[in-house]
């Protein structure tokens, strides 16, 4: 079931006088059409969500209190003069709820303007149960009427619904040299999405083998942990009967495993038996890394004998494409200057990449994650464990645990934090 987080509102007492500026969340993403900020999974990892508080008129001895909705989450006694510099702190991840929240703070009796924040930590597609395989196991391959295409007419591609599908997700279908983005509308959630492959796209890609797949990024910047499973299709017109290039080490699913390639260069072979000595063959290599960033290489060779022409791609140029793909296309130029595009080939590249992104570990604030001093009484009492993502206390228990903790909140399941209390009763 999907959730439109922007419809969730919270009702709580808002003081009338708010002379202080809103809290600043430097890593948050602004929405173009509203004053809401977006926070994703990576931003609340490690030490928590970084916030900055205007220190104007704040002096030693004051207290800064930070609230999420009506819940107090940080108490910051001011011990130094910040001399106009912002007060930088981190809200622990376990105190940040999913959905639309309002973050405020007050200095003594002065309240800030509320800052609305949309928090989304559920990744599109959920957590891949088989991350070492090519593509996200839970993101089904695109659907097409036939794997053999003539390129003479438009074709319709279908992407089936996926886990955590939400309004605002951007689903980008990759078709060779073409990338077709689609933003999910509210009435499309949990329904199949359709894309159109235009005849012009077939002409641009030329004949050969293509792997159709898609990537997903939600409205606050959470990416699916990998691209979808791929669908291999062949574009074959009547005009071109040449064979596509051969890539060493690629299996029948058009997949190259970097663990098998090791530190070697990648061999690409082109059958040139039907060509003439003196012909020039140009390789155009278009690689897309796991973020969709292009990496382009070109190489040209002159044919000396009618056999097989070998091209080598440096190992470093392959390694950067771990979790992505590469498209190989050739152009032949004969002795008279005439050019002929040759059938292309596309491969998926699987490497040892960490697919669940984690936030960079910022320097920890004085009030977050600080080490314990030596117990004054010599007694250490362990308080009730806090389970991240739990609800408020319920009857008969210290807290309620949301079911999402055990499916896709975190790849390691529930995170339990035990807060030691120094000097407590044994």
Which regions have little confidence, pLDDT < 50, spanning 5+ residues?
6-12, 353-383, 391-426
Superfamily (CATH H level) name of the largest domain: Immunoglobulins
Please estimate the helix content: under 10%
CATH class of the largest domain: Mainly Beta
Q: Can you count the helices?
A: 3
Form type: elongated
Rg value: 28 Å
Main beta sheet, described? 7 strands, mixed
Strand content: 25-35%
Distance between the termini: 46 Å
Number of strands: 29
Strand pairing plus helix content: what structural class? mainly beta
CATH topology of the largest domain: Immunoglobulin-like
Provide the CATH architecture of the largest domain: Sandwich
Number of domains: 4
What is the average per-residue confidence, as pLDDT, rounded to a whole number? 81
């Amino acid at each position: 079931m999907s959730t439109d987080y922007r419809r969730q509102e919270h009702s709580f007492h808002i003081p009338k006088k708010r002379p202080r500026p809103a809290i600043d969340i430097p890593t948050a993403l602004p929405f173009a059409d509203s004053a809401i900020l977006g926070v994703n999974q990576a931003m609340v990892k490690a030490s928590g969500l970084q916030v900055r508080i205007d220190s104007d008129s704040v002096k030693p001895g004051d207290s800064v209190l930070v609230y999420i909705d009506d819940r107090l989450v940080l108490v910051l006694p001011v011990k130094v003069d910040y001399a106009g510099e912002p007060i930088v702190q981190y809200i622990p991840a376990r105190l940040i709820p999913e959905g639309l929240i309002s973050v405020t703070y007050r200095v003594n009796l002065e309240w800030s303007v509320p800052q609305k924040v949309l928090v989304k930590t559920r990744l599109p597609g959920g957590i891949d149960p088989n991350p070492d395989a090519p593509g996200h196991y839970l993101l089904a391959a695109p659907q097409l009427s036939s794997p053999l295409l003539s390129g003479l007419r438009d074709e319709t591609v279908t992407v089936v619904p996926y886990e955590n599908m939400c309004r605002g997700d951007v689903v980008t279908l990759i078709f060779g040299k073409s990338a077709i983005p689609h933003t999910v509308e509210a009435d499309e959630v949990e329904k199949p999405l359709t894309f159109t492959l235009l005849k012009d796209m077939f002409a641009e890609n030329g004949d050969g083998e293509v792997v159709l797949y898609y990537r997903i990024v939600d409205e606050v910047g959470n990416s699916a942990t990998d691209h979808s499973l791929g669908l291999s299709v062949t574009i074959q017109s009547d005009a071109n009967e040449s064979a596509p290039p051969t890539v060493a080490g690629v299996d029948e699913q058009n997949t190259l495993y970097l663990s098998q390639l090791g530190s070697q260069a990648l061999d690409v072979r082109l059958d040139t038996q039907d060509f003439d000595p003196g012909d020039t063959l140009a390789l155009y290599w278009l690689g897309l890394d796991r973020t969709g960033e292009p990496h382009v290489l070109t190489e040209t060779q002159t044919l000396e004998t009618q056999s097989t022409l070998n091209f080598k791609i440096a190992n470093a140029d392959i390694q950067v494409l771990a979790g992505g793909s590469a498209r190989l296309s050739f152009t032949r130029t004969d002795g008279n200057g005439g050019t002929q595009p040759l059938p292309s080939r596309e491969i998926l590249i699987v490497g040892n990449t960490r697919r669940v992104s984690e936030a960079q570990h910022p320097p920890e604030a004085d009030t977050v994650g600080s080490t314990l001093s030596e117990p004054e009484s010599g007694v250490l009492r362990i308080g009730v464990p806090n389970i991240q993502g739990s609800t408020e206390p319920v009857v008969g228990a210290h807290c309620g645990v949301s079911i999402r903790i055990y499916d896709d909140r975190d790849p390691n399941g529930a995170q339990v934090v035990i807060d030691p209390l120094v000097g407590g009763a044994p």
